[in-house]
Amino acid sequence: MKGKGVGVLLVLVGLGLGATVLRDGVPMGAAQQGAAPVQATAPLNEPGARLQNEQNTIDVVNRFEPGLVFISTEEVVPQDPFAMMFGGGQEEVQRGVGSGFFVNDAGDILTNYHVVAGEGSGGAAAKITVRLMGQEASVPAEVVGLAPQYDLALIRAPGLQKDLIRPIPLGDSASLKVGQKAIAMGAPFGLDFSVTEGIVSSTARQIPIGFGGVSGQGITQKAIQTDAAINPGNSGGPLLDSGGRVIGINTQIYSPAGQGGGVGQSAGVGFAIPIDTARNLLPRLQAAQGGEVNAPDIGIRGGLAVQSRQGLLPVGLSVLSSAGKRQLGLPDQGLVVGQVLPGTPAARAGLRAGTERQQFRGGLILLGGDVITRADGEPVDALEDLQAALIDKKEGDTVTLTVVRGEATREVKVTLDASSFTVRTGQ
Fold it and tell me: Where does the PDZ domain lie (predicted)?
């Protein structure tokens, strides 16, 4: 949710509170039978009126908000040729804003990929600057590593004073409970260093997150859902628990108001990438030397594809008719294995690609090989489903696949190795 220039109208409404004083159950006036006037409205003892929850929020904000980072980007992009007809220039500067936070004493700043992403072919924006709380000047930042499929990025500003770097401790998103407090920090609509509060509404909401991958779309991942207000510009900022630990990275909102082409706004349904996902990815981001890291890949490509405007698009068996699947002897849903790359975990596990090529109206399928129907017990019907099962895994981890070959069904354990994390081409 990169924030753009958004006008904000603030309206302040005063609320008056009155009090009626009773004595022996009888309403009293300002003065009665020679008694001293009674003050109708007692002064508020504001410090004493603070609830425990209020004070906790204040303490968390005071302690950890200095670890929040305001991020600005600039990108020179070609102007719309129609605009040039009306006197416009050949290029224009596109600006964006977002948020991030320090994760260590070295000054590494975690944020969303889409906050720092460039236009067009991907990569990072040409100019990235950061500004810290209480500082007027912005400092140039550089990319340490990008992870488009996770919608995560790590940046660093070498020119920052060391004493200004204030890491926020990372929590444990696996132990979250629905109903826990959630504090969101960021820059909604460019209003830098803002704070909102709510609760954790769900701990495992499955939504597409990230960019790229096999289909060019986000990979379905488990996200934290919260009702803490999140808006454009909050992206990349931390979601904290009542102990001030980061439990997630704010990334998306559900906004019916934005579906008509306008700027999305909070509807009380926001999503954050679990911090455990980011923690597992941090070593790879730190070693990326400015490049990209990818989601794990066991080395297979889909064997069922349908024709689309972009060419052949890999799909799952659920797109075929029930009659067609029965005729071909295929399960109701699953990922048809069309290619097994040599030297990969899939090859070593003995997965087999289809070799019998059959074309049908609007697509093709490779038969005679394996069909993956589950990964670690979760249903699989597309490459994105398989990637979702792999996305949090590290080198040495295993994934258990349920595989159908002909009339036989078996369990296959696939162990990820270094080759699972290298860039490969081919579909």
Answer: 307-407
